[in-house]
Design the sequence.
């Protein structure tokens, strides 16, 4: 597959930056899954758990693909793989909850990435919102999303959604994000700026 880089320069000497970029992309060998995974291991991702309701019960999975997209209107996006056990529920859902995890919630991230049958087994750890979606207790920040638009993209589906409600606790408990980096759950530390 050739990825075309559009030439924005009107120069005609054949040596524009855009032409260099086009040549580099066209001549590069195919990206292997190993290269892709190795590079993305160095790309830290904030960890969320996405939950939704389905006719057969609550569904949810851990994700690092959730990102802000638009302030006005308020939009966000995430990806789900086509082979995910959550894909059927997500394809039919009209809303979902996106929980932003803290560094003391790695156990939740691990639970929602493993055996799907165990994800909601602890009945004391979640409840149903009046709007019908499962919400995980003790999660200080969560988004309720609706108006889901699904765009097939390679082996995944890109989901763009409107943020319709925000739960954002301002308690005294310090909250640090949970990130996934180099194949591990990690906390972040501030940098002392000189
Ligand atoms: C840190 C982390 C981030 C993940 N991010 C995503 C993601 O963005 N999208 C996705 O579909 N699966 C993601 N997964 C995988 C899912 O959480 C889940 O393990 C996978 O879909 C298999 O679930 P299944 O057994 O329900 O099919 C991630 C897993 C981990 C551990």
Sequence:
């Amino acid at each position: 597959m050739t990825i075309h880089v559009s030439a924005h320069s009107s120069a005609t000497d054949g040596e524009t930056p855009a032409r260099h970029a086009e040549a580099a992309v066209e001549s590069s060998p195919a990206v292997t899954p190993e290269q892709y995974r190795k590079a993305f291991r160095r790309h830290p991702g904030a960890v969320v758990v996405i939950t939704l309701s389905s006719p057969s019960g609550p569904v949810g999975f851990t994700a690092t693909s959730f990102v802000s997209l638009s302030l006005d209107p308020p939009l966000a996006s995430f990806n789900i793989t086509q082979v995910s056990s959550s894909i059927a529920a997500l394809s039919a859902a009209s809303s979902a909850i996106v929980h932003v995890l803290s560094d003391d919630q790695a156990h939740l991230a691990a639970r929602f990435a493993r055996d799907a049958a165990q994800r909601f087994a602890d009945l004391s750890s979640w409840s149903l919102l009046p709007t019908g979606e499962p919400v995980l207790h003790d999660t200080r920040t969560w988004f309720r999303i609706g108006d889901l638009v699904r765009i097939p993209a390679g082996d995944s589906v890109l989901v763009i959604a409107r943020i319709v409600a925000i739960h954002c606790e301002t308690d005294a408990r310090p909250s640090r994000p949970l990130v996934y980096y180099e194949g591990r759950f990690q906390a972040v530390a501030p940098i002392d700026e000189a």
User: Anything to note?
Assistant: Residues 44-187 form a domain with the Pnp Oxidase; Chain A fold (CATH 2.30.110.10). Residues 47, 61-65, 78-81, 84-86, 112-113, 116, 180 surround flavin mononucleotide (CB under 6 Å). The helical segments are 17-27, 33-41, 87-92, 106-111.
